[in-house]
Amino acid sequence: xxxxxxxxxxxxxxxxxxxxxxxxxxxxxxxxxxxxxxxxxxxxxxxxxxxxxxxxxxxxxxxxxxxxxxxxxxxxxxxxxxxxxxxxxxxxxxxxxxxxxxxxxxxxxxxxxxxxxxxxxxxxxxxxxxxxxxxxxxxxxxxxxxxxxxxxxxxxxxxxxxxxxxxxxxxxxxxxxxxxxxxxxxxxxxxxxxxxxxxxxxxxxxxxxx
Length: 210
Hints:
The protein is an alpha/beta fold. 45% of the residues lie in helices and 15% in strands. The chain folds into 2 domains: 4-15 and 75-208, Rossmann fold, CATH 3.40.50; 19-71. The chain has helices spanning 9-13, 19-26, 30-41, 47-57, 63-72, 79-88, 101-104, 137-151, 168-173, 184-187, 199-208; strands at 4-7, 92-100, 114-118, 158-162, 176-180, 192-194. Strands 3-2-1-4-5-6 form a 6-stranded parallel β-sheet, with helices on both faces.
């Protein structure tokens, strides 16, 4: 039976950062996004409110900003290599993130079979954010189940890679998980733990131990 590898983006594939942070830096809004991130981390605001406020913050966002943010982001080393190995072994890999889909979807070019991010209007923004399209921690489990059906695997055949509170429900739902540079929200739930900047090393923990 093939395996389905499910990767978080912010704080996992991105080392010590998040897509909204990298995008905001391109707009000179580092302090503003830091304040929003703090409110989100302390649960003063939930994902839909965060998205609405980010949409307002990014009023001048262009595709050039998104490209610069993506290309300049602090990615872990070895992402393409890990996904190539997953594909070569007949397994599947996907990214599920609360961050905007227009950023997350670029990872398909790196070898992900599927990507799922929060649904934002097209860049440059002309439409409002629909709160119904914004993912939550619980929605990650729903997306994972849909991917299981798509690829013909079971939850028992899945492994999650994540770092924080938004991954906790998915870690609890799956039998195998890898905490990558993780905080206390998932470190106690994970099957394996990795600290570092190379996804190949995190992937080897799982592969070497079954």
